[in-house]
User: Fold this.
Amino acid sequence: MASALPPPNDTGAPTASSRLHWEDFVVGETREFGHYEVTREAVLDFARQFDPQPFHLDDTAAAGALFGRLAASGWHTCAMAMRMMCDAYLLRAASLGSPGIDHLVWPTPVFPGDVLCMRSTVLESRPLASRPMVGLVRSKSEVLNQNGEIVLSMEGVGFYARRAAAPPPA
Assistant:
């Protein structure tokens, strides 16, 4: 079941009450979001700056590589996923960061012209024992291309502020 986001205030900025908190991430819930068009210019720009392997920079080199044509870096795919997550919910959430990703794969290459979207499913949600005002959310996220092929799959943890918490034990 896809969920809706709380509305922002009149200025477009989220209010404290409209922010997504730990309580808003329900185990089993799936959010679907994003529409990111991959351009050749963006693939080349990212590769020049961060992953200058020939198959990310040059059509001739890419033709002789495993992908058969110019492909986005997997790290670029991660960056595009992060952008979609920020636009869809993180910038409107009481996010406190993440300790990292447990699992990350790129099963299908991303090419210029692809249109990407995401789905994210909550796998676990629990308060942190050491910090009662913080909740942990473990999710599985997938980025899909316009053909429904998974181009990125990852599992990771995010920390979110809680609206309320039980008092710490005495």
Summary: Confidence is low (pLDDT under 50) at residues 1-12. The domain at 22-161 is CATH 3.10.129.10 (Thiol Ester Dehydrase; Chain A). Residues 74-88 form the longest helix (15 residues).
